[in-house]
Each structure stands twice: as structure tokens, then as C-alpha cells.
Design brief:
The protein has about 240 residues and is an alpha/beta fold. The chain contains ten helices and nine strands.
């Protein structure tokens, strides 16, 4: 897959017109590159831009990004993809993680144990570099963690991992809010990554859902909460 994306590629991710996408790009910090007479953008910069701005989209626009990127990846947008991915990777409740460094170290180690990557140090460095640019922590108390440049890594298999530490920790949310839920996203395919990113943002737009997860005591209980929330979001058609 190319390391560059055109305005048309970005429009397909977002499920909107090229003119509307061009307006959004103009108001962003994305740097335009001229390549073989075409205006393109660095793939990783675009994906990081999505991650930083999806929380500000309306529910309807976020749904369009969710469904459009799923279609582009050949996925069924009406399937419970988040539930299925978490069922495969398990949900972890570490005993001792109280800092950003310790949570990133723990996440990187688990990614290796699950066979997603081979080098935990390389992954941790990529995650730390991403957090140094702009924190992936959201106002809702969750962080959607991903490498700065996944194309520079060897990823054996896709992975969505949820880590729930015993206590919230300071992770860099701009408003100073603590973070309680940590999702690791390892998806080399751009369409797949955007779909998961958009779907997670939709799930997390409910404080009661987040509070229920934090009160859960087992993998099975969390998975059931995610499943019921995902079914509701899929059937909402962008209304929630």
C-alpha cells in the first residue's frame, strides 16, 4: 500500500465529497506534497490527523467515516467488529501500571505475547513518539493508542487490545483529565485502521457505557457490554 494518500483517498475514508474534504484539509496542519504532478499527503500524517479530529465530528459524519472505511476494506459495516477483535485478543487488567511509561511498556509486552509484533522495544518507541506529538487520550477517559508510523514496523497480525488498569493515570489528555481505558490499535491497512478508529469513537460517546466497563470485573463482562453497545451504535444510523 502506498505511503501517500490523495484528496480522493481521504474523501473515501471520510465518506464525503472531495470539495468538502479539500476544505477540511485546508484548515488542517496536513502538509501537501507534489508527486508526479499530483497533490498527495503522507499516509501516517493523515491517519494521525483522523485520530486527533474524529472526536469533533458529528455523530452522522463519524458514522459515514465508519461505514465508508469499512466498505473500502471489504468489511461488513453492520457486523460487531470491535467485539470480535476484543474476543480474539482478550481484555487485560494489569495489577501495576501507574504511569504513561509503565502502561506503554505493558501494552508493548502483551502485543508480543499475542503474536502481533516481535519487538516490544520498537513498538514502545513508536507509541511513545506518537504520544509526544499529540496525546491519543480523549476527554471521555479513554486512549486510542497506535504507532506513529506503523509502516516502519513488521506487524505479524492485526490487533485490538484493551487494557484496564486498577486506577486512572495521567496520560496527556490536554485538559488534564485522567485516563482509565487504553485501546491499542495495530492495523497496517489504512481502511481497516480508520474503520476501527471511527467505530471506537462512536462506542465511547456514552459515559454510562464507559462507567459500566470500569465497574466490570471480567473479560466476559466487558465483552458483553461492548457487544450490546456496538449493536446499539450500528442500529442508530448515526443518531448517537
Amino acid at each position: 500500500m502506498s505511503v501517500f494518500l490523495s484528496e480522493t483517498d481521504i474523501a473515501r475514508f471520510l465518506g464525503q465529497s472531495v470539495p468538502d474534504t479539500r476544505k477540511a484539509i485546508k484548515s488542517s496542519t496536513l502538509k501537501e506534497i507534489s508527486r508526479q504532478g499530483q497533490k498527495v499527503f503522507q499516509r501516517e500524517e493523515v491517519l494521525n490527523w483522523f485520530a486527533d479530529n474524529f472526536t469533533s465530528l458529528t455523530s452522522e459524519r463519524l458514522m459515514r467515516a465508519d461505514f465508508s472505511s469499512a466498505d473500502n476494506a471489504g468489511l461488513d459495516p453492520f457486523s460487531c467488529g470491535i467485539t470480535n477483535l476484543l474476543a480474539e485478543s482478550e481484555i487485560r487488567f494489569p495489577d501495576r501500571t501507574s504511569t504513561r511509561s509503565s502502561i506503554l511498556r505493558y501494552i508493548s509486552t502483551k502485543a508480543v505475547e499475542l503474536g502481533a509484533v516481535y519487538d516490544s522495544v520498537d513498538l514502545r518507541e513508536q507509541l511513545e513518539q506518537r504520544e509526544e506529538i499529540v496525546s491519543t487520550a480523549l476527554k471521555c477517559g479513554a486512549a486510542l493508542i497506535h504507532p506513529l508510523a506503523i509502516k516502519q514496523m513488521y506487524v505479524e497480525k492485526e490487533l485490538l487490545l484493551l487494557i484496564i488498569p486498577p486506577h486512572p493515570i495521567p496520560f496527556g489528555e490536554p485538559g488534564g483529565r485522567l485516563t482509565s481505558l487504553f485501546f491499542l490499535l495495530l492495523f497496517p491497512d489504512s481502511n481497516r485502521h480508520v474503520h476501527i478508529l471511527a467505530r471506537l469513537n462512536r462506542l465511547l460517546r456514552c459515559n454510562e457505557f464507559i462507567e459500566a466497563i470500569l465497574e466490570a470485573e471480567s473479560h466476559e463482562e466487558v465483552l458483553d457490554l461492548v457487544y450490546r453497545r456496538e449493536l446499539l451504535v450500528i442500529s442508530s444510523r448515526g443518531k448517537i
